[in-house]
Design goal:
- This protein has a single domain, classed as Alpha-Beta Plaits.
- Helices cover 35% and strands 38% of the residues.
- It is built from three helices and six strands, in the order βββαββααβ.
Length: 100
């Protein structure tokens, strides 16, 4: 199994929407991918409530059957559309991919 974890810091505003609205939109779009991409076991997005100096604004936690499934997800057209949206509203991105 592969775990794919991503943290984003969002722009204060982008696309005419607030950081909070864009975080909710990221959550909605990404979680809609559940059940649509072969090899994707689970995917959830959390929105930070602590708002500390060390916090990211949103986090993605996802599990895949294997590395090939993660690669298929990365290249899936529905994921690419979400990735493009996130790219417009984020200021920073950090990720960790690992196998268990």
């Amino acid at each position: 199994m592969v775990k794919h974890i991503v943290f984003w810091t969002l722009k204060e505003s982008a696309g005419g929407k607030s950081k909070e609205d864009n975080a909710l939109e990221i959550k909605r779009r990404l979680e809609a991918l559940n059940g649509k991409i072969p090899g994707l076991i689970s995917l959830e997005v959390g929105i930070d409530f602590s708002r500390s100096e060390a916090s990211a604004d949103a986090a993605l936690y996802s599990e895949f059957e294997d590395r090939e499934a993660l690669g298929a997800y990365q290249n899936h057209p529905e994921h690419i559309a979400v990735r493009e949206f996130v790219g417009r509203v984020r200021s920073q991105r950090f990720l960790v991919d690992y196998e268990v």
